[in-house]
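Course assignment 3, question 2. Fill in each field.
Student: A.L.
Task: Predict the tertiary structure for the chain below.
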Amino acid sequence: AWLYFLGERDHHPYLVATLGNNRITALQVTGPQPAKGYDFNHVDLGATTDALVQMFGQPSHFEPSEEKDTELWTYGVWPFSFEIRDGHVTSIRIHEP
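Answer field:
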């Protein structure tokens, strides 16, 4: 995986590009605050769960994330997911189905 800081080095937000077979298989942007130009369908880091549900509806699955006090929301067959902490989006991930 390749890690790119979107602001100050070693600080949020950052972008991770996961590689497989010499191509990008997933992109994930992570941080507590919006990352200009890195929203997904008008949902940005820091967005509320209400804004997320308004855009995509209720997730098909909730589960604990590997991150402490964070929940992972997935949307069935759709190749994207969100991490939620304290009612706000802290990570957006899009992956190859």
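Instructor remarks: The chain has a mean pLDDT of 95. Strands lie at 2-5, 14-20, 23-30, 61-64, 71-74, 80-85, 88-95.
Grade: pending
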